[in-house]
């Protein structure tokens, strides 16, 4: 493939440009399974106590936000009922 380079209106240069060769990025199923096992070995799993406390925190926050949304919806519903 030739690439044309224009430096000014009078000078035109042509260079041979070769496209890069495609790399072999293929992965086999065996490689995938092996690398997955290696990555899972690096994971630091939470303790039972940490899992329980964080689960409770998430459930409480979801309940709090749901209650807040419910109250705001009721207030706006009441206000819309008064206006319309």
Plain-language structure description:
- It is a single chain.
- This protein has 84 residues and is mainly α.
- Helices cover 60% and strands 12% of the residues.
- It is built from 2 helices and 2 strands.
- A two-stranded antiparallel ribbon has the order 1-2.
- A hairpin with a 5-residue loop joins strand 1 and strand 2.
- The protein is flat.
- The chain starts with a strand and ends with a helix.
Fraction of helical residues: 55-70%
Q: How many strand segments?
A: 2
Dominant shape: flat
Give the strand order, joined by hyphens, for the main sheet: 1-2
* SS-derived structural category: mainly alpha
Number of helices: 2
Assess the beta-strand content as a share of residues: 5-15%
Order of SSEs: EEHH
Low-confidence stretches: none
Write the layout of secondary structure elements.
Elements: E1 2-6, E2 12-16, H1 29-42, H2 48-83
Antiparallel strand pairs: 1-2
Highlighted features:
single chain, mainly alpha, 2 helices
Characterize this entry briefly.
This protein has helices spanning 29-42, 48-83, and strands at 2-6, 12-16. The protein is mostly helical. The mean pLDDT is 86.
